[in-house]
Amino acid sequence: MKKIILSTTLVALATLSACSTTSPDVIKREDAQRMAQIQDATVLSVRTVTVDGSQSGIGAVAGGVVGGIAGSSVGGQRENAIVGVLGAVAGAVAGNAVERATTREDAVEIIVQLRNGERRSVVQAKGQENLQPGEAVILVTTGGKTRVSRAPAVTAAPMNEPAPRKY
Protein backbone atom coordinates (compact mmCIF):
# COMPACT_ATOMS: atom_id res chain seq x y z
CA MET A 1 0.00 0.00 0.00
CA LYS A 2 2.81 2.39 0.92
CA LYS A 3 4.55 1.74 -2.41
CA ILE A 4 1.37 2.45 -4.35
CA ILE A 5 0.81 5.78 -2.58
CA LEU A 6 4.45 6.80 -2.99
CA SER A 7 4.44 5.83 -6.68
CA THR A 8 1.20 7.72 -7.30
CA THR A 9 2.58 10.82 -5.57
CA LEU A 10 5.80 10.77 -7.60
CA VAL A 11 3.88 10.32 -10.87
CA ALA A 12 1.60 13.25 -9.97
CA LEU A 13 4.59 15.48 -9.18
CA ALA A 14 6.34 14.52 -12.42
CA THR A 15 3.18 15.24 -14.39
CA LEU A 16 2.77 18.64 -12.77
CA SER A 17 6.38 19.54 -13.44
CA ALA A 18 5.95 18.69 -17.12
CA CYS A 19 3.06 21.17 -17.40
CA SER A 20 5.18 24.28 -16.94
CA THR A 21 7.86 25.42 -19.36
CA THR A 22 9.47 28.58 -20.65
CA SER A 23 10.66 26.89 -23.82
CA PRO A 24 10.54 29.02 -26.97
CA ASP A 25 9.56 25.86 -28.85
CA VAL A 26 6.33 25.37 -26.84
CA ILE A 27 3.40 27.73 -27.38
CA LYS A 28 0.57 27.77 -24.83
CA ARG A 29 -2.86 26.95 -26.20
CA GLU A 30 -4.25 30.35 -25.16
CA ASP A 31 -1.49 32.11 -27.16
CA ALA A 32 -2.34 30.28 -30.39
CA GLN A 33 -4.14 32.32 -33.04
CA ARG A 34 -3.37 35.60 -31.30
CA MET A 35 -1.50 38.40 -32.98
CA ALA A 36 1.89 39.01 -31.39
CA GLN A 37 4.13 42.05 -31.42
CA ILE A 38 7.47 41.45 -33.14
CA GLN A 39 10.65 43.50 -32.76
CA ASP A 40 13.89 43.07 -34.67
CA ALA A 41 17.07 42.86 -32.61
CA THR A 42 20.66 41.63 -32.56
CA VAL A 43 22.04 39.21 -29.97
CA LEU A 44 24.69 40.80 -27.74
CA SER A 45 25.27 37.84 -25.41
CA VAL A 46 23.87 34.47 -24.36
CA ARG A 47 24.58 32.79 -21.03
CA THR A 48 23.31 29.65 -19.35
CA VAL A 49 21.12 30.15 -16.26
CA THR A 50 18.80 28.01 -14.14
CA VAL A 51 15.15 28.89 -13.54
CA ASP A 52 14.42 27.97 -9.94
CA GLY A 53 11.73 25.35 -9.33
CA SER A 54 8.25 26.21 -8.13
CA GLN A 55 6.81 25.58 -4.70
CA SER A 56 3.06 25.53 -5.25
CA GLY A 57 2.41 23.46 -2.12
CA ILE A 58 1.19 20.43 -4.06
CA GLY A 59 4.43 18.56 -3.36
CA ALA A 60 4.25 19.38 0.34
CA VAL A 61 0.62 18.25 0.64
CA ALA A 62 1.22 15.04 -1.29
CA GLY A 63 4.36 14.29 0.70
CA GLY A 64 2.58 15.05 3.98
CA VAL A 65 -0.24 12.64 3.15
CA VAL A 66 2.14 9.87 2.17
CA GLY A 67 4.37 10.47 5.20
CA GLY A 68 1.41 10.60 7.58
CA ILE A 69 -0.08 7.36 6.27
CA ALA A 70 3.28 5.60 6.30
CA GLY A 71 4.15 6.88 9.78
CA SER A 72 0.79 6.01 11.31
CA SER A 73 1.24 2.35 10.43
CA VAL A 74 4.39 2.09 12.56
CA GLY A 75 4.33 0.87 16.19
CA GLY A 76 1.42 0.50 18.59
CA GLN A 77 -1.57 2.79 19.16
CA ARG A 78 0.31 5.46 21.08
CA GLU A 79 3.40 5.43 18.88
CA ASN A 80 1.56 5.40 15.57
CA ALA A 81 -0.04 8.82 16.21
CA ILE A 82 3.30 10.42 17.08
CA VAL A 83 5.16 8.73 14.24
CA GLY A 84 2.27 9.61 11.90
CA VAL A 85 2.66 13.33 12.69
CA LEU A 86 6.44 13.13 12.34
CA GLY A 87 6.01 11.22 9.06
CA ALA A 88 3.60 13.88 7.77
CA VAL A 89 6.06 16.68 8.56
CA ALA A 90 9.00 14.80 7.03
CA GLY A 91 6.89 13.87 4.00
CA ALA A 92 5.82 17.49 3.49
CA VAL A 93 9.43 18.67 3.56
CA ALA A 94 10.50 15.91 1.17
CA GLY A 95 7.52 16.50 -1.14
CA ASN A 96 8.29 20.21 -1.32
CA ALA A 97 11.93 19.45 -2.18
CA VAL A 98 10.87 16.96 -4.88
CA GLU A 99 8.47 19.49 -6.43
CA ARG A 100 11.13 22.19 -6.44
CA ALA A 101 13.75 19.89 -7.98
CA THR A 102 11.44 18.52 -10.68
CA THR A 103 10.25 21.97 -11.78
CA ARG A 104 13.76 23.46 -12.02
CA GLU A 105 14.66 24.28 -15.62
CA ASP A 106 17.86 24.88 -17.58
CA ALA A 107 17.55 28.17 -19.45
CA VAL A 108 19.46 30.93 -21.23
CA GLU A 109 19.56 34.66 -20.66
CA ILE A 110 19.71 36.43 -24.01
CA ILE A 111 20.72 40.08 -24.08
CA VAL A 112 19.70 41.82 -27.29
CA GLN A 113 19.95 45.28 -28.77
CA LEU A 114 16.87 46.62 -30.55
CA ARG A 115 17.18 48.64 -33.75
CA ASN A 116 16.54 51.86 -31.80
CA GLY A 117 19.60 51.12 -29.62
CA GLU A 118 17.72 49.99 -26.50
CA ARG A 119 18.86 46.78 -24.83
CA ARG A 120 16.65 44.04 -23.43
CA SER A 121 17.21 40.80 -21.53
CA VAL A 122 14.99 37.74 -21.99
CA VAL A 123 15.29 34.51 -19.99
CA GLN A 124 13.81 31.43 -21.66
CA ALA A 125 14.32 27.68 -21.56
CA LYS A 126 16.92 26.26 -23.88
CA GLY A 127 15.22 25.62 -27.20
CA GLN A 128 16.35 23.97 -30.39
CA GLU A 129 18.04 27.16 -31.63
CA ASN A 130 21.56 27.89 -30.46
CA LEU A 131 21.75 31.68 -30.70
CA GLN A 132 25.14 33.42 -31.03
CA PRO A 133 26.25 37.04 -30.44
CA GLY A 134 25.84 39.15 -33.58
CA GLU A 135 22.95 37.07 -34.87
CA ALA A 136 19.73 38.73 -36.08
CA VAL A 137 16.73 37.72 -33.95
CA ILE A 138 13.12 38.65 -33.41
CA LEU A 139 11.42 39.22 -30.07
CA VAL A 140 7.89 37.83 -30.14
CA THR A 141 5.65 39.23 -27.38
CA THR A 142 2.27 37.62 -26.70
CA GLY A 143 0.21 38.04 -23.56
CA GLY A 144 2.98 39.92 -21.77
CA LYS A 145 5.55 37.16 -22.33
CA THR A 146 8.46 37.49 -24.75
CA ARG A 147 10.49 34.80 -26.52
CA VAL A 148 13.53 35.17 -28.74
CA SER A 149 13.86 33.35 -32.07
CA ARG A 150 16.27 33.49 -34.97
CA ALA A 151 15.09 36.08 -37.50
CA PRO A 152 13.66 34.58 -40.67
CA ALA A 153 15.46 35.28 -43.89
CA VAL A 154 14.13 38.35 -45.64
CA THR A 155 13.15 37.83 -49.25
CA ALA A 156 12.12 40.44 -51.79
CA ALA A 157 8.39 40.82 -52.15
CA PRO A 158 7.13 39.64 -55.54
CA MET A 159 6.21 42.40 -57.96
CA ASN A 160 2.55 42.65 -58.86
CA GLU A 161 2.54 41.74 -62.49
CA PRO A 162 -0.58 42.31 -64.58
CA ALA A 163 -2.54 39.19 -65.36
CA PRO A 164 -2.04 37.92 -68.91
CA ARG A 165 -4.72 39.08 -71.30
CA LYS A 166 -7.11 36.61 -72.78
CA TYR A 167 -8.02 37.26 -76.40
TrEMBL record:
Its main location: membrane. It is found in: Cell outer membrane. It comes from the Bacteria. Coiled coil: none annotated. It is a lipid-anchor. Residues 58-99 form the Glycine zipper 2TM domain. The keyword Ribonucleoprotein does not apply. Keywords: Lipoprotein, Membrane, Palmitate, Signal. Residues 1-20 form the signal peptide. This is Glycine zipper 2TM domain-containing protein.
